[in-house]
Every structure is written in C-alpha cells, then in structure tokens.
Specification:
The complex is a heterodimer of chains A (110) and B (114). Chain A is built from no helices and eleven strands. Chain A is an all-beta fold. Chain A is globular. The relative contact order of chain A is 0.34. With 114 residues, chain B is an all-beta fold. The chains are: A mainly beta (110), B mainly beta (114).
C-alpha cells in the first residue's frame, strides 16, 4: 500500500459546485496532516492543516477519519481560481519527514 | 518578509557534469527540506536538516547526491555525474521547527540534463 494515495483526477466541476477529495494514508500513528495547493509550474503552498476535530476556513473544510485512515477536503462554491492540484501531506511520526501524495487535479469550469 | 529563495532558477547541464543547487531558507527557520518533483509527479523527499545536521538522508536516490547546510542557514544540494533521469524540479522548503509546522517552499530549480 502506498504511504499516501490520492485520486489524480482531474475533477472537472462547474463554478459554484461543491467538490470533495479524499486521501488515504498508511501509517496509523500519523498525527500531523495538511492540504497543500500547487498551481501549475509553481511551488506548493499550505492550504490548511487538518486537526482531529476537523477545521473550516471559509469555503474549505478539512476532516480527519482516523478509523478509516483518510483525510478529506471539501470545497464549497467553487471558483475558477480554485483550479489547481491539491496535495495531501502527513508527517511521518518519529521523524520529521513529510510524505506527499501525488495530488488531485481540480479544474473549475466557467 | 523574504521567503525561501533558490538559485539558479533554471540549470541546463550535460550528462556527466556536476551541479550545485542552492537554497536560502527563511531566517530563523531551523528545519530545511529538499524535494524533487518530476513532470506530473508528486514530491519525492530527498533530505531533511535540523540546524546543520541531517538526521534523515534516506531519500537521497544515490551516492551521487549529497547535501550540506552551514551556519544553520544556506543549504546546497550537489549532484555529481548527472544523468538524464536527474532532470526534475528541485524544491527546497523550510519550517520554523521540524514538527507539525507549515513548510514554506522556494520557487524551485528546474534541472535539465542533456
């Protein structure tokens, strides 16, 4: 099983739609999870951290499901500017190594 | 304030040559990471520094790759005897500490080995 697995997409959605991505991870001891956003030919940037209780930032909501070992990202009211690749990341417990998924590509269409 | 900077932004080299990539992290950040990203792929972890020490070198693809960090600041990634499969974008990131912190990425160095 890969350390982090994501559906590569692309997810093509119309403006205003709600879209959700999941990401599964293999290490049940993992404690720190993140979603990063990467625009084409740009560096990744932190979108949000994922807390055990879940967290919300405007149109974005992240959830952690420890029992099933996945994290999710929900984007409401999609904007054209949300078009990007979304990277799921966790920090390997006991080391400082961050494990990145290969990303899910989102295209928001006008 | 200044973010993470990397140089050069682009490097084209011939197979068999050595290259040196540089990363300037955000001032005060103790943790520094090197990653490699091939076209259309995810980020591949290469090496991590805490201060000047590299507790985890497990991601270096071969002994042609080495990295150092001096003064707890600037880091260089050196690739000796480059091969075509080394062509990728090399990304550097820094974070305040090594644990559960946001990583700030530099713009990357695009390496092309002919």
């Amino acid at each position: 099983r890969k350390e982090v697995e994501q559906d590569p997409g692309p997810f093509n959605v119309p403006e205003g739609a709600t879209v959700a991505f999941n990401c599964t991870y293999s290490n049940s001891a993992s404690q720190s999870f993140f979603w990063y956003r990467q625009d084409c030919r740009k560096e990744p940037k932190l979108l949000m951290s994922v807390y055990s209780s879940g967290n919300e930032d405007g149109r974005f909501t992240a959830q952690l499901n420890r029992a099933s070992q996945y994290i999710s990202l929900l984007i409401r009211d999609s904007k054209l500017s949300d078009s990007a690749t979304y990277l799921c990341v966790y920090q390997d417990p006991g080391t400082y190594k961050y494990i990145f998924g290969t990303g899910t590509r989102l295209k928001v269409l006008a | 304030g200044a973010g993470v900077s990397q140089s050069p932004s682009n490097k084209v080299t011939e197979k068999g040559k050595d290259v040196e990539l540089r990363c300037d992290p955000i001032s005060g950040h103790t943790a520094l990471y090197w990653y490699r990203q091939s076209l259309g792929q995810g980020l591949e972890f290469l090496i991590y520094f805490q201060g000047n020490s590299a507790p985890d070198k497990s991601g270096l693809p071969s002994d042609r790759f080495s990295a150092e960090r001096t003064g707890g600041s600037v880091s260089t990634l050196t690739i000796q005897r480059t091969q075509q499969e080394d062509s990728a974008v090399y990304l550097c990131a820094s974070s305040l500490t090594g644990t559960n912190n946001e990583q700030f990425f530099g713009p990357g160095t695009r390496l092309t080995v002919l």
